[in-house]
């Protein structure tokens, strides 16, 4: 016979740490009190409304939400749910049993089953705990008698006499179900939470929960494998009985394991004391070294102080002698009283030299010693940083590595890392970063605690380099710091825009994606038709497209990708008062070396082609970046051709009238020139043949989450 007292641990709610009250079965098969489920959901909604602050965790007096769960609040912020005064609306529940986020579905808490079996066991435990306290009859006149039975239909307890009165023979109440005295009245029939008027009569083997026939016919279990309730009852009871018998048969083995675990507990205590002693000895050594350094530093300061005081005292005594009737002046006054010339000259010659020195010293007064002790100020920044990193290093803990391919630096910094090894992965990470420049070479590290493997960092300075490093923590253990990765921010604030599908957009030759962040041109039949219409030579005009937002002032930066297969792409800026020329430009042909009306091929036009354009563009294509022909450009054509970066950037400074073209991956300027910024400036692109351009997406919190899931 199993003692009720021995199973107390199984009857405690993992949330409130008390005996279950109306327990609900979660989709993860853990049980939580009905009240606790509501309080946890309310706590999450309150935290969401308060912006996920630490103080919002205390909205429930019984439920404490761990700080590691707070980062999950951002994931449910998309639902935009608000707290209802009676029922929480959030469908995301953090199970206190398995510490996972559980989706409760559309019905939320209303879609959970009540665990009546567990409720009955808890009631039996309570009865055993209060065996001396009898359950009194609910219908006796005072004083009430001790009840002998409870009616499950009436949900009341009766003594023998009252039960006969209220359940007379030959009536419907005589058919009521009665049990021994209890305070736990559960319904006789388990009803479906999805269809409240239907009783459950089947068991879904996929979801592992009872369902009704309507759930199977047209509900969420329509395509699931189900079985009858009697078959599920028999199968599960046989499996449970078999497993229990197996565990009982292994009782001696279980006791041996318990004995071994008790020995391991004692060994753990001994080893922990030994580790404490070793740690104390390590710190004592540090204290000893610091104590010696402290004593030496204080002795040096004291010796310097005494030497300076002695020098200043001697100087003060010398100046004291310059006073009338005192010291050197007094002695000189007495010498002046000598009337014998020979004796006076003999004494006054040496005295006059001393008086002259005193006079010169008085004219250029300078203390004999410095009063400041700047030479004795210690720079302990590096030592302080080393001591701050002092922790238990574990050889088995993986060292994270920052992935430069997955990390991005655009409007914000997205830092991603991974643990390539197969050893234990850290539970939490600490990401540090600092700004690198000549003025602040010893800039302090900024620290961020992260529960995932990526982090978005905002509020970084433009045109600056930052160093990043990360380390992992698992309990009290930590890994060494990863290799530092240096990334550079854009030279100006990021400018956001989309491709304009109205102004000059040629829908026959260009194709935009629905979000208007990518444009593509195909070298197909439309291009052949365009070439066929040109009777002289083989020339086809470029297809232009601009951004839907203009720039009137300031300095701005944007980035984009050009597909490697692109044949010809031009990128740059155009002024609002020259847009018409952009879409009706006769010089825009495949070869700048030929004019249709000139009748000859000459290379003399090369030096003037780009300067004659009413806008500022550079040419890309065939995986190359072509620096335009200008007087300042290299004369050798080969030196003007650079490899095409994977990501290109453009920096427009309207105030200075300059535009720069960057390798956006390294934030390195490839080419800079002057631009006419007399009007509103628009990003401009031109494509010909097979080509595609994709605008760089801004870094957001959602982007971080998608990277973390990958």
Would you write up a description of this structure?
Its main location: cytoplasm. The chain has 710 residues and is an alpha+beta fold. Among the domains are: 1-46 and 89-131, 2-Layer Sandwich (Herpes Virus-1); 231-362, no CATH class; 401-488, Sandwich (Immunoglobulin-like); 510-531 and 540-586 and 614-700, SPRY domain (Jelly Rolls). It is 28% helix and 21% strand. The protein is built from 13 helices and 34 strands. The strands form 8 sheets. It has a 7-stranded antiparallel sheet, with no helix packed on it. Strands 12, 16, 17, 19, 20 and 21 form a 6-stranded mixed sheet that branches. Strand 14 (408-409) and strand 15 form a beta hairpin. The two termini are 52 Å apart. The relative contact order is 0.06.
Assembly form of the protein: single chain
Rg value: 43 Å
CATH topology of one domain: Jelly Rolls
- The residue-averaged pLDDT reads 79
Helix and strand topology:
Layout: E1 23-25, E2 31-33, H1 34-49, E3 92-94, E4 101-103, E5 113-114, H2 116-129, E6 149-151, E7 156-158, H3 160-166, E8 178-179, E9 202-204, E10 209-211, H4 213-218, E11 226-228, H5 229-249, H6 251-320, H7 327-335, H8 341-363, H9 381-388, E12 392-393, E13 401-402, E14 408-409, E15 413-418, E16 428-436, E17 446-450, E18 454-457, E19 465-474, E20 477-478, E21 485-488, E22 510-512, E23 518-521, H10 525-533, E24 543-546, E25 555-562, E26 568-575, H11 579-583, H12 606-609, E27 616-621, E28 624-626, E29 641-643, E30 648-653, E31 658-663, E32 668-674, E33 681-688, E34 691-695, H13 701-709
Parallel strand pairs: 12-20
Antiparallel strand pairs: 1-2, 1-5, 3-4, 6-7, 6-8, 9-10, 9-11, 13-15, 14-15, 15-18, 16-17, 16-19, 19-20, 19-21, 22-23, 23-34, 24-33, 25-30, 25-34, 26-27, 26-33, 27-28, 28-29, 30-31, 31-32
Helix pairs in contact: 7-8
């Amino acid at each position: 016979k199993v003692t009720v007292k021995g199973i107390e641990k199984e009857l405690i709610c993992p949330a409130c740490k008390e005996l279950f009250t109306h327990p609900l079965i979660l989709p993860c098969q853990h049980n939580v009190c009905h009240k606790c489920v509501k309080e946890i959901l309310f706590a999450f909604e309150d935290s969401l409304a308060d912006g996920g602050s630490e103080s919002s965790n205390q909205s429930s007096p019984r439920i404490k939400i761990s700080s590691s769960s707070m980062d999950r609040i951002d994931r449910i912020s998309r639902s935009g749910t608000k707290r209802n005064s009676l029922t929480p609306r959030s469908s995301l529940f953090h199970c206190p049993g398995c510490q996972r986020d559980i989706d409760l579905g559309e019905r939320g808490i209303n879609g959970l089953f009540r665990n009546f079996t567990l409720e009955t066991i808890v009631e039996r435990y309570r009865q055993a705990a209060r065996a001396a306290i009898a359950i009194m009859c609910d219908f006796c006149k005072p004083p009430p008698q001790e009840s002998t039975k409870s009616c499950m239909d009436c949900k009341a307890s009766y003594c023998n006499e009252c039960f006969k009165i209220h359940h007379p023979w030959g009536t419907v109440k005589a058919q009521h179900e009665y049990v021994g005295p209890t305070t736990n009245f559960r319904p006789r029939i388990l009803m479906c939470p999805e269809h409240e008027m239907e009783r459950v009569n089947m068991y879904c083997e996929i979801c592992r929960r009872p369902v009704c026939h309507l759930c199977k016919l047209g509900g969420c279990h329509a395509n699931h494998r189900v079985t009858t309730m009697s078959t599920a009852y028999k199968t599960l009871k046989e499996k449970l009985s078999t497993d229990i018998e197996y565990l009982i048969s292994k009782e001696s083995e279980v006791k041996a394991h318990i004995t071994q675990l008790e020995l391991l507990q004692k060994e753990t205590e001994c080893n922990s004391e030994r580790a404490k002693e070793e740690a104390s000895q390590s710190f004592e050594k540090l204290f000893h070294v610091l104590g010696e350094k402290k004593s030496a530093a204080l002795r040096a300061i004291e010796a310097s102080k005494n030497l300076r005081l002695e020098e200043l005292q001697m100087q003060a005594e010398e100046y004291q002698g310059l006073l009338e009737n005192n010291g050197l002046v007094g002695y000189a006054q007495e010498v002046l009283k000598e009337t014998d010339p020979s004796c006076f000259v003999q004494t006054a010659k040496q005295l006059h030299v001393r008086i002259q020195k005193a006079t010169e010293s008085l004219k250029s007064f300078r203390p004999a010693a410095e009063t400041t002790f700047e030479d004795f100020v210690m720079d302990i920044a590096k030592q302080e940083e080393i001591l701050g990193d002092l922790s238990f290093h574990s050889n088995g803990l993986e060292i994270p590595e920052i992935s430069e391919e997955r990390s991005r630096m655009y409007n914000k910094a997205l830092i991603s890392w991974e643990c390539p090894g197969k050893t234990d992965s850290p539970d939490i990470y600490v990401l540090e970063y600092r700004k690198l420049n000549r003025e602040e070479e010893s800039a302090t590290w900024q620290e961020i605690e992260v529960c995932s493997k990526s982090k978005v960092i905002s509020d970084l300075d433009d045109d600056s380099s930052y160093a990043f490093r990360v380390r992992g923590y698992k309990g009290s253990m930590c890994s060494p710091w990863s290799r530092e990765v240096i990334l550079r921010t854009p030279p100006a604030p990021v400018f956001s825009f989309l491709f304009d599908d109205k102004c000059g957009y040629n829908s026959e030759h260009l194709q935009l994606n629905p979000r208007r962040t990518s444009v593509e041109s195909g070298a197909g039949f439309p291009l052949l038709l365009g070439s066929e219409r040109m009777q002289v030579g083989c020339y086809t005009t470029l297809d232009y497209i601009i951004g839907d937002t203009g720039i009137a002032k300031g300095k701005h930066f944007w980035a984009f990708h050009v597909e490697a297969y692109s044949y010809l792409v031009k990128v740059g800026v155009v002024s609002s008062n020259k847009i018409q020329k952009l879409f009706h430009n006769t010089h825009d042909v495949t070869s700048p070396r030929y004019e249709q009306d000139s009748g000859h091929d000459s290379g003399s036009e090369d030096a003037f082609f780009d300067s004659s354009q009413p806008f500022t563009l550079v040419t890309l294509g065939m995986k190359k970046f072509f620096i335009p022909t200008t007087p300042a450009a290299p004369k050798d054509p080969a030196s003007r051709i650079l490899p095409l970066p994977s990501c290109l950037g453009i920096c427009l400074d309207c105030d200075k009238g300059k535009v720069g073209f960057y390798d956006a991956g390294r934030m390195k300027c490839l080419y800079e020139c002057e631009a006419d910024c007399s009007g509103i400036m628009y990003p401009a692109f031109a494509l010909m043949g097979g080509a595609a351009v994709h605008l760089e997406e801004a870094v957001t919190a959602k982007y971080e989450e998608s990277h973390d899931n990958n």
